[in-house]
Every structure is written in C-alpha cells, then in structure tokens.
C-alpha cells in the first residue's frame, strides 16, 4: 500500500468552518515540483493529494503531498511544525524531507513507504502482533518526546514493510503538544472510532489521546472490529413494578 490514508473520514475544518482547496488545478504525472518529478497519483491523505515522485537530483523515490486549507496562520504553524518533524529521526516515523511551494501551492516531500496496512499485515501473520505493537509504541513515544501529538492514529496511517519495519504516516493533523491549544466546541480532529472521549467533550489533544487511539488499534487487531461495534441499541430495560400501598382509611373486610 502507498503512503495515503484510507476512506475512513478524517474531520477538521478551518477557523471559519470552510475547506480551502489547492490554489489551482492539481498537478499530474510528469510535472515537476522543485527537484521532484511526479510519477503517479497515489490517493488522498489527511490534508491533500499524494503522489509518488522522483528526486531528479538524488534519484530517491519520495511521496509528495499537496497541502490545502492553508490560511496565513495555518501556514505559519505548518512551517514551525515542519521544522520540528524534519528534525525527528526514528525508524518507525516517516521522514519529512522538504517543504516547497510551486504556483501558489505548498507541497510536503516525505519518505516513500512501500508496505501494507497494519491490520492486513497482522491478519496475514498473527505472530507479527507483538513486534508490530512494540514498534508502533516506539514511534509514538519518539513523537511525544519531540513534543508532538499525532491526533489521527489509526491502522490506515501505519504501514508494515516487507522486512517487518513499522512506519507511522500522515502527520497532516499533528500539532505541538507544547502549543497548549485551548479546548474548542467544534468537531474534534481525527477519525471517528479512534477519538478519545475527552476530545469529543472539547479537551485539547494530548499524548494521552494518542495512546487511547493505540489502545483502539490493539483492540481492533485482536478482535477484528472497533470497540462497541457489537452494541446494538435496544429498548430500555423495564423497571420492576412497585407494589401499591393500601389507601389509608380504606374499609377493612
């Protein structure tokens, strides 16, 4: 599988509730963005379109993501965040290589990962469960040690390479844990089913909310479904009838 998100909907809006698209028509295979030549379209990620590309200067294969929904404040935050993410080097985190702009659209170049989705890897070989989880936890710890919260951990954002390396992808919703974002009443960013309860109540994302998502992933790997998937709404249980008290002053026979 290529480094893109699945069809599970990731929700996030701009400050005014809108979704801002790219500045122009999306690029196509054969076009160049800086030193990168687009090879093929891969899919849609958390914040834009994703392409396989070749670095013509180095010959490396990379993934290029278009970055949409960027107002000036979000662009400022993106640049700050990129400097943090580019400085993180861990085997279980996708490498962020460059942040470039072309024709008014910003693009993120990152390591190309050729692997299968986490759930598919464990389903094909259940003995992988323990080493896969150990690597996933190691990547999450490294991210938190750098002061970053992922905010959208789910199986589609975790790939397993043929050699067994686990790679966490799609930091399009990541944010600095030190930023101390205030709670908000808008819909929490992330994917339904993996969002911690406190985020749904307006709390700010934190390392704990990432670990909640890891717990959901573990449950899904063990059972094949999300927590609560078997629950079905039914009629409320009937309360037992209370005995009626005799009316005072009633005639006795």
Automatic annotation (TrEMBL):
Residues in Protein kinase domain copies: 36-253
The keyword Kinase appears for this protein: yes
Highest taxon above the source species: Bacteria
Stretches with biased composition (Low complexity): 1-22
Spans annotated as Disordered: 1-33, 228-253
Matches recorded under Gene3D superfamilies: Transferase(Phosphotransferase) domain 1
Keywords, ordered alphabetically: ATP-binding, Kinase, Nucleotide-binding, Transferase
The keyword Zinc is annotated on this UniProt entry: no
Segments of skewed composition (Basic residues): 229-247
Binding-site positions, ATP: 65
Signal peptide: none
GO molecular function, a single term: ATP binding
PANTHER family per record: MITOGEN-ACTIVATED PROTEIN KINASE KINASE KINASE 20-RELATED (PTHR43289), SERINE_THREONINE-PROTEIN KINASE NEKL-3 (PTHR43289:SF6)
Name this protein carries in UniProt: Serine/threonine-protein kinase
Lineage: Bacteria, Pseudomonadati, Myxococcota, Polyangia, Nannocystales
